[in-house]
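Sequence, please.
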């Protein structure tokens, strides 16, 4: 394996209905489906003729799974669903409105990032989330084959996949975050020195057709 292409899922119903993210499970909007078609077209041009086989993974939450299915249809790839590619578990806030979430989150102990902060009852801490993502990536990556990965996931998960690729220790997350956009494409590769490279981050140029 020489590269991982990471896609942030396209516009979902929770984006327009003021619902919390996390494990809230909403489908793509009509616009989101159009965005996914454009993502698929961009990927088709990106990987066409590069000599590699690709495996397509997606979070099992609807907004990521549906994005991946649209991509898979254009690329001729079957989607492998992986629960551990979900966004951070927001516990009791899943399915609730953003206003409800703001009023019912656990109190913070300070105004700096705390990796062990559990924002919602029954949810994950950021450390637990990072360990989940790292363990998932270690498991699904096969370094001995020429099959590269395409992963459709969520904003927080995408950030932590990049951190995993760059070999971040958990404590480094206190001062770093990779903020991408809906429908974006990021590419993780290795150079001739076997260094891990963030080659492309948050490319949304393919979405300009919808502007």
């Amino acid at each position: 394996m020489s590269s991982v292409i990471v896609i942030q899922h396209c516009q979902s119903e929770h984006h327009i209905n003021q619902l919390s993210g996390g494990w809230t499970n909403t489908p793509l909007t009509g616009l989101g489906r159009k965005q996914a078609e454009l993502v698929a077209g961009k990927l088709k041009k990106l990987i066409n003729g590069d000599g590699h086989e690709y495996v397509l993974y997606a979070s099992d939450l609807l907004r990521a799974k549906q994005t991946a299915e649209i991509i898979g249809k254009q690329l001729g790839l079957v989607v492998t669903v992986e629960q551990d590619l979900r966004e951070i578990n927001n516990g009791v806030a899943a399915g609730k409105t953003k206003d409800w979430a703001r009023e019912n989150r656990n109190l913070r102990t300070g105004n700096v990032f705390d990796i062990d902060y559990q924002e919602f009852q029954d949810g994950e801490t950021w450390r637990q989330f990072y360990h989940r993502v790292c363990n998932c990536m270690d498991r699904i990556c096969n370094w001995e084959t020429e099959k590269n990965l395409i992963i459709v996931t969520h904003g927080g998960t995408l950030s932590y996949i990049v951190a995993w690729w760059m070999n971040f220790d958990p404590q480094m997350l206190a001062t770093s975050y990779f903020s991408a956009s809906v429908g974006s494409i990021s590419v993780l590769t290795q150079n001739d020195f076997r260094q891990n490279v963030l080659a492309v981050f948050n490319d949304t140029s393919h979405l300009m057709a919808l502007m």
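The chain is about 35% helix and 15% strand.
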